Amino acid sequence: MDTLSEAYKGIPLNLGDIIPLDFSSPPPTLPDSHAWFQPSDDDCSFDDPASSMPIIDFLDPKATELIGLACEKWGAFQLKNHGIPLDVIQGTEEEVKRLFSLPTEQKLKALRSPGGASGYGRARISPFFPKSMWHEGFTIIGSSARDVKKIWPDDYARFCDRMENYEKEMKVLAERLTEMLFDMLKIPEEKRKWVVTSDISEVLQLNFFPSCPEPDRAMGLAPHTDTSILTIVQSPSTGLQLFKEGKGWINVHPHPNSLIVHLGDLLHIISNGRFCSPLHRVTLNETRKRYSIAYFYTPPVDYVLSPSLSGDNSPVALFRDVTVKEYHEIRAQKFGNSLSLVRI
Ligand SMILES: O=C(O)CCC(=O)C(=O)O
Ligand SMILES: [Fe+2]
Protein backbone atom coordinates (compact mmCIF):
# COMPACT_ATOMS: atom_id res chain seq x y z
CA MET A 1 0.00 0.00 0.00
CA ASP A 2 1.16 3.49 -0.80
CA THR A 3 1.82 5.64 2.23
CA LEU A 4 1.90 9.39 2.64
CA SER A 5 5.69 9.26 2.33
CA GLU A 6 5.25 8.45 -1.39
CA ALA A 7 3.69 11.86 -2.00
CA TYR A 8 6.99 13.58 -1.12
CA LYS A 9 9.38 11.36 -3.09
CA GLY A 10 9.03 13.31 -6.32
CA ILE A 11 9.92 16.63 -4.68
CA PRO A 12 13.31 16.17 -2.97
CA LEU A 13 14.59 18.99 -0.75
CA ASN A 14 18.07 20.46 -0.34
CA LEU A 15 19.88 19.46 2.84
CA GLY A 16 19.81 23.16 3.80
CA ASP A 17 16.01 22.87 4.02
CA ILE A 18 16.25 19.79 6.26
CA ILE A 19 19.05 20.40 8.79
CA PRO A 20 17.94 22.63 11.70
CA LEU A 21 20.13 25.26 13.33
CA ASP A 22 22.36 23.74 16.02
CA PHE A 23 20.34 24.86 19.04
CA SER A 24 22.75 23.16 21.49
CA SER A 25 25.07 26.16 20.98
CA PRO A 26 22.67 28.87 19.78
CA PRO A 27 23.99 32.25 18.64
CA PRO A 28 23.65 34.97 21.35
CA THR A 29 21.67 37.18 18.98
CA LEU A 30 19.13 36.28 16.32
CA PRO A 31 20.91 35.47 13.03
CA ASP A 32 19.56 37.27 9.96
CA SER A 33 18.55 33.87 8.48
CA HIS A 34 16.01 33.56 11.34
CA ALA A 35 14.86 37.21 11.58
CA TRP A 36 11.28 37.40 10.25
CA PHE A 37 10.40 40.82 11.64
CA GLN A 38 12.11 44.15 12.30
CA PRO A 39 12.05 45.41 15.93
CA SER A 40 9.58 48.12 14.85
CA ASP A 41 7.13 45.70 13.14
CA ASP A 42 3.68 45.52 14.66
CA ASP A 43 2.63 41.92 14.28
CA CYS A 44 -0.82 42.49 15.81
CA SER A 45 -1.39 39.34 17.83
CA PHE A 46 -3.69 39.65 20.81
CA ASP A 47 -5.60 38.20 23.73
CA ASP A 48 -9.29 38.86 23.85
CA PRO A 49 -11.29 36.76 26.31
CA ALA A 50 -14.42 37.43 24.25
CA SER A 51 -12.90 35.81 21.21
CA SER A 52 -10.90 32.86 22.48
CA MET A 53 -11.04 29.33 21.13
CA PRO A 54 -13.97 27.37 22.64
CA ILE A 55 -13.25 24.87 25.42
CA ILE A 56 -15.61 21.90 25.19
CA ASP A 57 -16.21 19.15 27.74
CA PHE A 58 -16.58 15.85 25.86
CA LEU A 59 -18.90 14.62 28.65
CA ASP A 60 -21.26 17.59 28.22
CA PRO A 61 -24.61 16.33 26.82
CA LYS A 62 -24.41 19.24 24.37
CA ALA A 63 -20.85 18.33 23.25
CA THR A 64 -21.87 17.35 19.69
CA GLU A 65 -23.74 20.59 19.10
CA LEU A 66 -20.90 22.67 20.58
CA ILE A 67 -18.28 20.87 18.51
CA GLY A 68 -20.33 21.50 15.35
CA LEU A 69 -20.55 25.22 16.10
CA ALA A 70 -16.84 25.44 16.96
CA CYS A 71 -15.93 23.72 13.69
CA GLU A 72 -18.03 26.16 11.68
CA LYS A 73 -16.82 29.27 13.46
CA TRP A 74 -13.23 28.38 14.34
CA GLY A 75 -12.31 25.04 12.82
CA ALA A 76 -10.76 24.39 16.23
CA PHE A 77 -11.53 23.83 19.90
CA GLN A 78 -9.99 22.59 23.13
CA LEU A 79 -11.34 19.29 24.42
CA LYS A 80 -11.67 18.43 28.12
CA ASN A 81 -12.44 14.91 29.37
CA HIS A 82 -11.16 13.46 26.11
CA GLY A 83 -10.52 10.05 27.65
CA ILE A 84 -6.77 9.78 26.95
CA PRO A 85 -5.12 8.53 30.17
CA LEU A 86 -2.82 11.08 31.80
CA ASP A 87 0.05 8.57 32.10
CA VAL A 88 -0.01 8.05 28.31
CA ILE A 89 0.25 11.79 27.73
CA GLN A 90 2.97 12.26 30.34
CA GLY A 91 4.97 9.25 29.13
CA THR A 92 4.92 10.55 25.55
CA GLU A 93 5.90 14.05 26.65
CA GLU A 94 8.83 12.58 28.60
CA GLU A 95 10.12 10.75 25.50
CA VAL A 96 9.77 13.85 23.34
CA LYS A 97 11.88 15.86 25.83
CA ARG A 98 14.44 13.02 26.01
CA LEU A 99 14.73 12.96 22.22
CA PHE A 100 15.18 16.69 21.67
CA SER A 101 17.64 17.10 24.55
CA LEU A 102 20.11 14.71 22.87
CA PRO A 103 23.35 16.10 21.43
CA THR A 104 22.85 17.44 17.89
CA GLU A 105 25.09 14.83 16.24
CA GLN A 106 22.98 12.04 17.71
CA LYS A 107 19.72 13.53 16.40
CA LEU A 108 21.30 14.09 12.98
CA LYS A 109 21.75 10.30 12.65
CA ALA A 110 18.01 10.14 12.00
CA LEU A 111 17.96 13.11 9.61
CA ARG A 112 15.10 12.98 7.08
CA SER A 113 16.33 11.98 3.63
CA PRO A 114 15.93 14.59 0.82
CA GLY A 115 12.88 12.81 -0.64
CA GLY A 116 11.69 11.41 2.69
CA ALA A 117 8.96 12.38 5.07
CA SER A 118 9.95 10.73 8.36
CA GLY A 119 12.80 11.40 10.79
CA TYR A 120 14.52 14.41 12.29
CA GLY A 121 14.67 17.84 10.65
CA ARG A 122 13.17 21.21 9.89
CA ALA A 123 9.45 21.62 9.27
CA ARG A 124 8.44 20.20 5.87
CA ILE A 125 7.03 23.64 4.95
CA SER A 126 10.45 25.36 5.34
CA PRO A 127 11.25 25.74 1.60
CA PHE A 128 8.16 27.92 1.11
CA PHE A 129 9.44 30.69 3.37
CA PRO A 130 12.38 33.05 2.88
CA LYS A 131 13.44 32.81 6.54
CA SER A 132 14.14 29.82 8.79
CA MET A 133 12.03 28.76 11.73
CA TRP A 134 13.27 28.47 15.31
CA HIS A 135 12.25 24.82 15.50
CA GLU A 136 13.30 21.18 15.38
CA GLY A 137 10.92 18.41 14.37
CA PHE A 138 10.72 14.64 14.33
CA THR A 139 8.13 13.02 12.07
CA ILE A 140 6.77 9.51 12.60
CA ILE A 141 4.88 7.77 9.77
CA GLY A 142 4.10 4.12 10.52
CA SER A 143 6.63 2.62 12.93
CA SER A 144 9.24 4.93 14.43
CA ALA A 145 11.65 2.01 14.97
CA ARG A 146 13.73 2.42 11.77
CA ASP A 147 14.62 6.05 12.58
CA VAL A 148 14.84 5.69 16.35
CA LYS A 149 17.23 2.71 16.14
CA LYS A 150 19.71 5.03 14.41
CA ILE A 151 19.62 7.28 17.48
CA TRP A 152 19.38 4.70 20.28
CA PRO A 153 20.56 1.36 18.77
CA ASP A 154 20.18 -0.50 22.08
CA ASP A 155 17.57 1.55 23.80
CA TYR A 156 14.85 2.36 21.28
CA ALA A 157 12.02 0.13 22.58
CA ARG A 158 10.62 2.43 25.27
CA PHE A 159 10.38 5.41 22.91
CA CYS A 160 8.77 3.32 20.15
CA ASP A 161 6.30 1.61 22.51
CA ARG A 162 5.17 4.91 24.00
CA MET A 163 4.73 6.55 20.59
CA GLU A 164 2.79 3.54 19.31
CA ASN A 165 0.57 3.54 22.35
CA TYR A 166 -0.05 7.28 22.04
CA GLU A 167 -1.02 6.86 18.38
CA LYS A 168 -3.46 4.07 19.29
CA GLU A 169 -5.18 6.28 21.85
CA MET A 170 -5.25 9.26 19.47
CA LYS A 171 -6.72 7.11 16.70
CA VAL A 172 -9.68 6.11 18.87
CA LEU A 173 -10.36 9.75 19.75
CA ALA A 174 -9.92 10.90 16.14
CA GLU A 175 -12.36 8.20 14.98
CA ARG A 176 -14.99 9.33 17.49
CA LEU A 177 -14.66 12.96 16.44
CA THR A 178 -14.66 12.10 12.73
CA GLU A 179 -17.79 9.94 13.03
CA MET A 180 -19.47 12.82 14.87
CA LEU A 181 -18.50 15.36 12.21
CA PHE A 182 -19.41 12.99 9.36
CA ASP A 183 -22.88 12.53 10.93
CA MET A 184 -23.33 16.32 10.88
CA LEU A 185 -22.21 16.43 7.25
CA LYS A 186 -24.46 13.46 6.35
CA ILE A 187 -21.56 11.59 4.75
CA PRO A 188 -22.96 8.36 3.25
CA GLU A 189 -21.90 4.94 4.54
CA GLU A 190 -19.73 4.01 1.53
CA LYS A 191 -17.64 7.20 2.00
CA ARG A 192 -16.86 6.54 5.67
CA LYS A 193 -15.99 2.85 5.85
CA TRP A 194 -12.31 3.76 6.18
CA VAL A 195 -12.86 5.40 9.57
CA VAL A 196 -12.92 2.10 11.45
CA THR A 197 -10.23 0.33 9.38
CA SER A 198 -6.55 0.17 10.21
CA ASP A 199 -5.75 1.48 6.76
CA ILE A 200 -5.61 5.18 7.62
CA SER A 201 -2.59 7.42 7.04
CA GLU A 202 -1.63 8.77 10.44
CA VAL A 203 1.36 10.99 11.15
CA LEU A 204 2.82 11.94 14.51
CA GLN A 205 4.78 15.19 14.45
CA LEU A 206 6.99 15.97 17.45
CA ASN A 207 7.95 19.64 17.71
CA PHE A 208 10.57 21.44 19.76
CA PHE A 209 10.79 25.24 20.01
CA PRO A 210 13.97 26.27 21.92
CA SER A 211 13.98 29.51 23.89
CA CYS A 212 14.91 32.35 21.56
CA PRO A 213 17.04 35.48 22.17
CA GLU A 214 14.59 37.72 20.22
CA PRO A 215 11.25 35.93 20.20
CA ASP A 216 9.30 38.86 18.75
CA ARG A 217 11.44 38.89 15.61
CA ALA A 218 11.55 35.12 15.06
CA MET A 219 9.02 32.42 14.11
CA GLY A 220 8.50 29.00 15.71
CA LEU A 221 6.29 27.53 13.00
CA ALA A 222 5.22 29.69 10.06
CA PRO A 223 1.52 30.20 9.23
CA HIS A 224 0.00 27.08 7.68
CA THR A 225 -3.09 24.93 7.56
CA ASP A 226 -2.85 21.18 8.18
CA THR A 227 -3.24 18.50 5.51
CA SER A 228 -5.44 16.21 7.59
CA ILE A 229 -9.06 15.52 8.44
CA LEU A 230 -8.25 16.74 11.91
CA THR A 231 -5.14 17.26 14.02
CA ILE A 232 -4.99 16.66 17.78
CA VAL A 233 -2.31 18.74 19.47
CA GLN A 234 -0.92 18.26 22.92
CA SER A 235 1.17 21.03 24.46
CA PRO A 236 0.96 22.39 27.98
CA SER A 237 2.39 25.80 27.06
CA THR A 238 1.28 28.84 25.12
CA GLY A 239 2.74 29.68 21.71
CA LEU A 240 0.07 28.42 19.32
CA GLN A 241 -1.91 31.17 17.56
CA LEU A 242 -4.92 30.92 15.26
CA PHE A 243 -5.71 33.45 12.57
CA LYS A 244 -9.23 34.82 12.71
CA GLU A 245 -10.48 36.89 9.79
CA GLY A 246 -11.15 40.46 10.87
CA LYS A 247 -9.31 40.01 14.20
CA GLY A 248 -5.75 38.79 13.55
CA TRP A 249 -3.64 36.26 15.42
CA ILE A 250 -5.37 34.96 18.56
CA ASN A 251 -3.30 33.35 21.32
CA VAL A 252 -4.39 29.89 22.41
CA HIS A 253 -4.07 29.34 26.17
CA PRO A 254 -4.00 25.58 26.75
CA HIS A 255 -6.56 24.55 29.34
CA PRO A 256 -5.10 22.05 31.88
CA ASN A 257 -5.56 18.41 30.83
CA SER A 258 -7.13 19.40 27.52
CA LEU A 259 -6.18 18.64 23.96
CA ILE A 260 -6.39 21.09 21.07
CA VAL A 261 -8.28 19.82 18.02
CA HIS A 262 -8.03 21.63 14.73
CA LEU A 263 -9.51 20.68 11.42
CA GLY A 264 -7.44 20.32 8.29
CA ASP A 265 -7.82 21.04 4.58
CA LEU A 266 -9.21 17.56 3.86
CA LEU A 267 -12.28 18.15 6.05
CA HIS A 268 -12.67 21.64 4.63
CA ILE A 269 -13.00 20.00 1.18
CA ILE A 270 -15.31 17.19 2.37
CA SER A 271 -17.56 19.69 4.20
CA ASN A 272 -17.70 21.79 1.01
CA GLY A 273 -16.28 24.75 2.92
CA ARG A 274 -18.69 24.54 5.88
CA PHE A 275 -15.97 23.64 8.41
CA CYS A 276 -12.86 25.85 8.55
CA SER A 277 -9.29 24.70 8.24
CA PRO A 278 -7.71 27.42 10.37
CA LEU A 279 -4.43 29.11 9.58
CA HIS A 280 -2.16 28.72 12.60
CA ARG A 281 1.43 29.40 13.64
CA VAL A 282 3.70 29.07 16.68
CA THR A 283 5.43 31.95 18.47
CA LEU A 284 8.44 31.79 20.79
CA ASN A 285 9.58 32.75 24.26
CA GLU A 286 12.85 34.24 25.48
CA THR A 287 13.32 31.93 28.47
CA ARG A 288 10.92 29.05 28.00
CA LYS A 289 11.31 26.08 25.64
CA ARG A 290 8.17 24.57 24.21
CA TYR A 291 7.33 21.05 23.07
CA SER A 292 4.25 19.90 21.19
CA ILE A 293 2.93 16.62 19.82
CA ALA A 294 0.61 16.81 16.81
CA TYR A 295 -1.35 13.76 15.62
CA PHE A 296 -2.59 14.10 12.02
CA TYR A 297 -5.56 11.89 11.17
CA THR A 298 -5.89 11.26 7.44
CA PRO A 299 -7.85 8.75 5.30
CA PRO A 300 -6.04 6.10 3.21
CA VAL A 301 -4.05 7.73 0.40
CA ASP A 302 -6.33 6.40 -2.37
CA TYR A 303 -9.51 7.78 -0.71
CA VAL A 304 -11.36 10.25 -2.93
CA LEU A 305 -12.26 13.48 -1.15
CA SER A 306 -15.63 14.65 -2.51
CA PRO A 307 -17.49 17.69 -1.19
CA SER A 308 -20.68 16.70 0.62
CA LEU A 309 -23.67 18.59 -0.76
CA SER A 310 -26.23 17.43 1.83
CA GLY A 311 -27.34 18.81 5.18
CA ASP A 312 -26.47 22.43 5.84
CA ASN A 313 -23.61 22.43 3.36
CA SER A 314 -23.63 24.54 0.24
CA PRO A 315 -25.60 22.62 -2.47
CA VAL A 316 -23.07 23.58 -5.16
CA ALA A 317 -19.69 21.83 -5.10
CA LEU A 318 -16.89 24.30 -4.36
CA PHE A 319 -14.10 21.75 -4.90
CA ARG A 320 -13.38 19.05 -7.43
CA ASP A 321 -12.88 15.44 -6.35
CA VAL A 322 -9.27 14.76 -5.39
CA THR A 323 -7.51 11.77 -3.79
CA VAL A 324 -5.65 12.20 -0.51
CA LYS A 325 -2.38 11.36 -2.28
CA GLU A 326 -2.97 13.90 -5.03
CA TYR A 327 -3.80 16.62 -2.50
CA HIS A 328 -0.58 15.85 -0.58
CA GLU A 329 1.39 16.10 -3.83
CA ILE A 330 -0.20 19.47 -4.59
CA ARG A 331 0.65 20.65 -1.06
CA ALA A 332 4.24 19.43 -1.33
CA GLN A 333 4.66 21.55 -4.47
CA LYS A 334 2.39 24.55 -4.01
CA PHE A 335 1.79 24.75 -0.25
CA GLY A 336 -0.47 27.73 0.61
CA ASN A 337 -2.17 27.77 -2.77
CA SER A 338 -3.34 24.18 -2.55
CA LEU A 339 -7.01 24.69 -1.68
CA SER A 340 -7.46 27.22 -4.47
CA LEU A 341 -5.96 24.71 -6.92
CA VAL A 342 -8.74 22.20 -6.23
CA ARG A 343 -11.50 24.83 -6.20
CA ILE A 344 -13.98 24.65 -9.05
O1 LIG B 1 2.92 23.30 18.26
C1 LIG B 1 1.72 23.50 18.04
O2 LIG B 1 0.94 23.90 18.90
C2 LIG B 1 1.17 23.29 16.65
C3 LIG B 1 2.00 22.40 15.80
C4 LIG B 1 1.53 22.39 14.38
O3 LIG B 1 0.80 23.25 13.95
C5 LIG B 1 1.95 21.32 13.46
O4 LIG B 1 2.80 20.48 13.83
O5 LIG B 1 1.41 21.30 12.32
FE1 LIG C 1 -0.19 22.63 12.12
UniProtKB/TrEMBL annotation:
Superkingdom, taxonomy of origin: Eukaryota
Entry protein name: gibberellin 3beta-dioxygenase
Recorded GO MF terms: gibberellin 3-beta-dioxygenase activity; metal ion binding
Domain Fe2OG dioxygenase, chain residue ranges per copy: 199-299
Membership in a protein family: Belongs to the iron/ascorbate-dependent oxidoreductase family. GA3OX subfamily.
Enzyme class: oxidoreductase
Coiled coil: 156-183
Native organism: Sphenostylis stenocarpa
Alphabetized Pfam families for the sequence: 2OG-FeII_Oxy, DIOX_N
Keywords: Coiled coil, Dioxygenase, Iron, Metal-binding, Oxidoreductase
GO terms, biological process: gibberellin biosynthetic process
EC code: 1.14.11.15
